[in-house]
Amino acid sequence: xxxxxxxxxxxxxxxxxxxxxxxxxxxxxxxxxxxxxxxxxxxxxxxxxxxxxxxxxxxxxxxxxxxxxxxxxxxxxxxxxxxxxxxxxxxxxxxxxxxxxxxxxxxxxxxxxxxxxxxxxxxxxxxxxxxxxxxxxxxxxxxxxxxxxxxxxxxxxxxxxxxxxxxxxxxxxxxxxxxxxxxxxxxxxxxxxxxxxxxxxxxxxxxxxxxxxxxxxxxxxxxxxxxxxxxxxxxxxxxxxxxxxxxxxxxxxxxxxxxxxxxxxxxxxxxxxxxxxxxxxxxxxxxxxxxxxxxxxxxxxxxxxxxxxxxxxxxxxxxxxxxxxxxxxxxxxxxxxxxxxxxxxxxxxxxxxxxxxxxxxxxxxxxxxxxxxxxxxxxxxxxxxxxxxxxxxxxxxxxxxxxxxxxxxxxxxxxxxxxxxxxxxxxxxxxxxxxxxxxxxxxxxxxxxxxxxxxxxxxxxxxxxxxxxxxxxxxxxxxxxxxxxxxxxxxxxxxxxxxxxxxxxxxxxxxxxxxxxxxxxxxxxxxxxxxxxxxxxxxxxxxxxxxxxxxxxxxxxxxxxxxxxxxxxxxxxxxxxxxxxxxxxxxxxxxxxxxxxxxxxxxxxxxxxxxxxxxxxxxxxxxxxxxxxxxxxxxxxxxxxxxxxxxxxxxxxxxxxxxxxxxxxxxxxxxxxxxxxxxxxxxxxxxxxxxxxxxxxxxxxxxxxxxxxxxxxxxxxxxxxxxxxxxxxxxxxxxxxxxxxxxxxxxxxxxxxxxxxxxxxxxxxxxxxxxxxxxxxxxxxxxxxxxxxxxxxxxxxxxxxxxxxxxxxxxxxxxxxxxxxxxxxxxxxxxxxxxxxxxxxxxxxxxxxxxxxxxxxxxxxxxxxxxxxxxxxxxxxxxxxxxxxxxxxxxxxxxxxxxxxxxxxxxxxxxxxxxxxxxxxx
Amino acid sequence: xxxxxxxxxxxxxxxxxxxxxxxxxxxxxxxxxxxxxxxxxxxxxxxxxxxxxxxxxxxxxxxxxxxxxxxxxxxxxxxxxxxxxxxxxxxxxxxxxxxxxxxxxxxxxxxxxxxxxxxxxxxxxxxxxxxxxxxxxxxxxxxxxxx
Lengths: 922, 147
Prior knowledge:
The structure holds two protein chains of two kinds.
Chain A: H1 5-20, H2 22-32, H3 38-57, H4 61-78, H5 86-104, H6 115-125, H7 129-141, H8 151-156, H9 166-182, H10 184-189, H11 198-201, H12 209-214, H13 221-233, H14 246-271, H15 278-299, E1 301-303, H16 305-308, H17 311-322, E2 326-331, E3 336-338, H18 339-360, H19 364-369, E4 376-385, E5 388-395, H20 402-411, H21 417-422, H22 425-430, H23 453-462, E6 466-472, E7 476-484, E8 489-497, E9 500-505, E10 509-515, H24 520-523, E11 524-527, E12 530-535, E13 538-544, H25 545-548, E14 563-570, E15 573-579, E16 581-589, H26 595-598, E17 603-608, E18 614-618, H27 620-626, H28 629-645, E19 649-656, E20 662-666, E21 670-677, E22 681-684, E23 687-692, E24 695-700, H29 702-705, E25 717-725, E26 728-734, E27 736-744, E28 757-763, E29 766-771, H30 773-780, H31 783-793, E30 801-805, H32 809-821, E31 825-829, H33 832-842, E32 848-852, H34 860-868, E33 878-882, H35 887-896, E34 900-903, H36 907-921
Parallel strand pairs in A: 2-4, 9-18, 13-15, 20-29, 24-26, 30-31, 30-32, 32-33, 33-34
Antiparallel strand pairs in A: 1-3, 4-5, 5-7, 6-7, 8-9, 8-16, 10-14, 11-12, 12-13, 14-15, 17-18, 19-20, 19-27, 21-25, 22-23, 23-24, 25-26, 28-29
Chain B: E1 2-9, E2 12-17, E3 21-26, E4 40-46, E5 49-55, H1 56-60, E6 72-78, E7 81-87, E8 89-96, E9 101-102, H2 110-115, E10 116-121, E11 126-130, H3 132-146
Parallel strand pairs in B: 2-11, 5-7
Antiparallel strand pairs in B: 1-2, 1-8, 3-6, 4-5, 6-7, 9-10, 10-11
């Protein structure tokens, strides 16, 4: 009956919000009486006023007139022309209640008679307290009859015709006829608006209250009866009703009929014991039910235009307020989306449109200056794309400046300077979605309503949608929203584990990884007790579904030997979920779970699969919580941190011994590489020797010193990598050289650690063992080191003490071990600051400082500068450790007083250097 | 006077007010729910609704019997909640006068005494009458303790 249902719905929601507070406020006014706060009255006034304004606009005459009267009284109170007493407030409250009920039943509101309330309020406004008294008394007597019965007619019900004020009748008729003339809508409802009001009114008596309620409006008995019955006895919240196109309903009826027919066929086929013909019936049932489901889904679909409808007004008002000129273009009103989504998109879209007008579109002056037309344009477009609904909000305004965004984000502490430097423009635009970010220089009352873009993003993501932004300085910005068509159907992956099937929403699945049996050991590792998956060089926390849900005994044998891993992402958490098997992708219908299993945490609901069995839907976040994944993630982060601090570039020589095993040695330690004939290698006693330039060079073979496989067959020519250790040379047989490369090492110092092997790193997706030649030599030729040890032990006043500042646990341990083997005492510090603190306490013990350059909190250069500028320490020798010593570094180091540079991977030289400086201080 | 649907659970005969019984069907396709309380046998598809199935044996504190296939499900509707109870077999529907119901014997176990609100005995049978609301309460309570 209304031309613009969306506007009316919005009016209902908005007015209900306005009126919700009124009751409490009126009560507060009553309590304060004479001293009531004018601001409070003002608040109520404004609320009623907004309702009145909108009602007038929508031709809701009854709501309009009632709120008008209410407003009059409030105005008097506001101007202190009327002191609120309980009678007045009673009347106000009743009127407000009635207003609320009218608003909630807006479609029938024009047929409800409120003249008694209007009269009562007018009487109060005109100062006729007596009348008020009488009228209110009547009301108190007939509370059960409620406000629907006009007090005037209520009087009539006692048969007291004389008491019925003729003015009242006139008023009543006036109201009715005026509403008639003003609103063409009403004329269709009121078939006989001039009907004698008195005739039917006599029937109701207080003893038949139920009837009285129904007979509330004498003007149109038959029509109003049913309407008001609905509106009075069971007020329905506006949002629980879906309006369905009659055509769709007819279709549903037809399909239901078809289904009944098919059922009858099926039953008769079964009862006759037919063996054949079931296929045809099954096909028919299949077709009918599919269509039925589709059609029922259609009833939930609503045009997105119902949300768009409010924006012309929003843009108009807002641009007027901001002194901008702005037009709104809307496309794709008719695009249909699930009702829930339509409703939930109202706020985010309003925010985005307001943003476009407020922050995007420039003032006319500026636009003119920029050579643009003065009127800015905001375009709102909805369209279907790839089974989803896209909404774009574009403006031809100023656009966003990525540099400014970054600066702001840095100021607000959202990102660090380093992060900002690495950010692409698109990433910079996305900063506006970060919590606590607002692009306006000042928070205006327009956009800064406590709803940030982060809330917009969260809202959209809760609906299973995504949001992205593009922008160009001077040209404008565009926000792109993608939404699923419906929430009830979720595209999911069906997986199997321990004989049960589960559904995992596609939205959470990043990728699927299959690890064959042979690679399990290599790909799945353990970091501090938690399993991790190596995925393209990164570590991903791994969750085993069977363990997390205790699906089978720990020692169960029916576990598959290869692994299927779903890489899942939710919010900030990303992890791998190890399951037994992967089945199909299916569009599943989400069903709620019963009380007993609803709160299990890891479940998002259930669904019914094609074969009729129930499959549980896994909650990706819930599973992460279930196994404390935050802490797992933190752990693996920690592990990565440890590694990352040592994550410096080292030049490595890569070679294989057996062709399946890759090894690396730091180039810094390699003296040279020789290519020799295998025949020149000979075994003398327990030693391998190479006869080489007339001398014999001791040779190490990996397979004899560490657990490495021997080469399959001896080649004619082999490489020998020569190291210098303690002024002697030793060669390592490297059957096949692969490469010499600068590699950012992430060293895993735990797995595969053994004497002679520093740890492992991943090179080209292959686990590579990094060798420690010094240690290899020490194993084989320990006697080489004994004499050295005695030398440093000779130092008169105790062992030389070294303060070692190194943030990487791996290198700190490695250097400490090396130095301690040489008889030095080592005090370790985790960074420059820590070393500085140590130095204050034990400075008289320290003979030499060794420091890394890149460290958190206080780096090596800062530390060295601090040491040099303190008189007590200024003479301490400082050796800096780097991964690759370049001349630039040396120069910077020399400027702050670093005495020597040593390469981390070359402990022998470091030891020499320490010894040199130690002897100079002693 | 009320009608009771009676059924077997183990060797004992139990009765439920028929007003609570929405339907009785055969066990088909139960999906286990990991980490759920012991009394939850799983969930099943009841014409498009996912219904939770409870194990009456566990709730009564009876030993679980691997041989009992629990062939029938009683689907109960109680205060707006729909849930199912797996039983070993269904017997008659009896009309029982309320004054022929006696208080349960005092030597019942704690679990039993919570669920059983009375006992009806005729010449031939002894039927323990169960209050479905108590099934719901007891099962939900066991979930809370499990959590």
